[in-house]
Write a structure and sequence with these properties.
The protein is α+β, with helices and mostly antiparallel strands. The chain is built from three helices and three strands, in the order E-E-E-H-H-H. The chain has a three-stranded antiparallel beta sheet. It starts with a strand and ends in a 16-residue tail after the last helix.
Length: 106
């Protein structure tokens, strides 16, 4: 897995294919700690979610957490809290999942 800042993440999927997951475009204030925010969110999702979400969806949500973290100054003080991630999980059906994919209207 390689995080690429505003360009998202690439990783090898179970079949060995390279998968690219784009991230939301935001106005970055301070990118320090974005990778830590991403890994923390991914670890949290993997630990508590099991197989409910596809790995790609966990990566996408982790990108959203990292994107949010760069909109504020600082490192730990800029990290979204558990409620932010819970809100993303709750409202998942309201998000466009990946370019070209749509979900039901909210």
């Amino acid at each position: 897995m390689v995080t690429m800042g505003g360009n998202g993440v690439v990783y090898l999927d179970e079949s060995g294919d390279v998968t690219h997951v784009p991230c939301n475009k935001v106005r970055a204030v301070d990118t320090t700690g974005a990778g830590d925010a991403f890994i923390g969110a991914l670890a949290s999702l993997m630990a508590r979610d099991g197989k409910f979400l596809a790995f790609r969806e966990k990566v996408r949500l982790s990108c959203a957490v990292a994107s949010e973290s760069v909109t504020k100054k600082g490192t730990q003080s800029s990290y979204p809290d558990k409620e932010f991630l819970d809100g993303l999980l709750k409202d998942m059906s309201c998000y466009t999942r990946f370019p070209g994919e749509t979900t039901a209207p909210c």
